[in-house]
Amino acid sequence: MNFALIGYGKMGKTIEALGKMQGHCFPVIIDEHNHDQLNSATLKGIDAAIEFSTPTTAPGNIRACINIGVPVVTGTTGWNEDLSEIEAYCKEKEGSLFYSSNFSVGVNILFALNRKLAEIMDQFPEYKVSINEVHHVHKKDAPSGTAISLAQQILEVNRQISSWHLKEGNDPGKAAATQLPIEAIRKGEIKGQHSIIYESPLDSITLSHDAHTRDAFAAGALLAAAFIKNKIGVFGMQDLLKF
Ligand SMILES: NC(=O)c1ccc[n+]([C@@H]2O[C@H](COP(=O)([O-])OP(=O)(O)OC[C@H]3O[C@@H](n4cnc5c(N)ncnc54)[C@H](O)[C@@H]3O)[C@@H](O)[C@H]2O)c1
User: Fold this and answer.
1) What radius of gyration, in Å, describes the C-alpha atoms of the chain?
2) pLDDT single digits (tens) 211-243
3) Which of 4, 19, 122, 195 has its CA 20 to 30 A from that of 33?
4) What integer pLDDT is reported at residue 169 of this predicted model?
């Protein structure tokens, strides 16, 4: 298939390398220096665009793809406040959008386990839940989009807590009893580690995922791009993996 890459940083380059090994072509590559080329003439003949840019540029890039009529897969995180508006815009324009805060199949298995564990733990209020995430030092947003997704899944079922709270630096941050604390650590070149921890005075239970390579995200993004070709609507990993 012919894919356009929007954002040619660490993820864009990883997707290109893996996609070429799978037989896909990337005739259009758009990055900061040539973002004015995101138009219908450049994207002619493109089956889907794959967007991994920055929190400030993603909403505009996605809107442009919807306006042009090219299905768009985006994995950029850190723009949650615009997500529902963009989803509504996509539906109104009968466009095609696939968003996931994490395209790794392993993390999506973690999401399913996280939901199930949250249901069970709601019966055991003596356990206090928290989330810990570790990423490379270049990451622009905190907490990670994946940590926010994990927190939202817990908030949907846990009757003790009503919001999440980001711990700032080494400051314990004093999360209120009704808040789920998220610790975001930036260290070296770590691809992405997430843990959900339930602590009681007697013991602790931890679910965790550690991404070894960016290929884990790239493979999912390529599957999503093949999936949305010729589809109309708003999609996520639940539609692709069906568990
Ligand atoms: N959903 C997932 O599975 C997943 C996995 C890894 C990373 N991410 C997220 O994807 C995003 C990109 O990650 P990365 O590691 O590749 O970052 P990166 O900083 O290496 O690359 C971002 C690229 O976007 C480019 N850019 C800036 N302005 C642009 C514009 N207007 N149009 C197009 N490109 C523009 C930059 O020049 C840069 O090359 C981040 O938000 C990150 O958190 C998501």
Assistant:
1) 19
2) 999 999 999 999 999 999 999 999 999 999 988
3) 19
4) 66
Does the beta carbon of 30 sit less than 6 angstroms from any atom of ligand 1?
Answer: yes
Cis? peptide before 71, omega within 30° of 0: no
pLDDT confidence of residue 172 = 58
Q: Identify the sign of the CA torsion 42, 27, 53, 238.
A: positive
Domains of the chain: 2-103+215-241 (3.40.50.720), 105-210 (3.30.360.10)
Q: In 3D, which of 33, 40, 83 has the Cα closest to residue 58?
A: 83
Is residue 165 annotated as a catalytic residue, yes or no?
no
Q: Whose CA is nearest to atom 39 of ligand 1?
A: 9
Distance of alpha carbon 14 from alpha carbon 219, whole angstroms: 9
47 CA distance to ligand 1 middle (Å)? 21
- Across 33-119, the runs of DSSP E, i.e. the strands, are 48-51, 72-74, 96-99
Query: Catalytic residue at 135?
Result: yes
C-beta 79 within 6 A of ligand 1:
no
Q: Strand 179-186 relative to strand 128-135: parallel, antiparallel, unpaired?
A: parallel
| Residue identifier of the C-alpha nearest atom 3 of ligand 1 | 102
